[in-house]
Design goal:
Helices cover 76% and strands 0% of the residues. The protein is built from 3 helices and no strands. The termini are far apart.
């Protein structure tokens, strides 16, 4: 099945509208949400995605980049915790 230029443009326009709506929703939600609530929701979504995926196994060829990603995220969370001062680190 070949996708025409016109159908690709229509598809992109539909996604652009959806993304614009989602950004508006996100801005409205984040204006009334604490950092703790936002982080809690993030981890709840991660937990849901993991349960839906059925596995968190990483293909061997991606293990090194996956580990690097998690090390970088850990450092970012630590910097955030230091800025907030009231967040306990493991």
């Amino acid at each position: 099945m070949k996708i025409t230029k016109e159908s690709a443009k229509a598809w992109k326009a539909a996604y652009d509208l959806d993304n614009e709506w989602e950004r508006g929703e996100l801005k409205a939600r984040l204006a009334n949400e604490t950092v703790e609530e936002s982080v809690r929701k993030y981890f709840a979504i991660c937990q849901l995605a993991t349960s839906l995926a059925g596995s968190t196994a990483v293909p061997p060829e991606l293990e090194e980049s996956w580990e690097q990603f998690h090390l970088e995220m850990e450092q970012k969370w630590k910097r955030l915790a230091e800025r907030l001062k009231n967040v306990q680190q493991p």
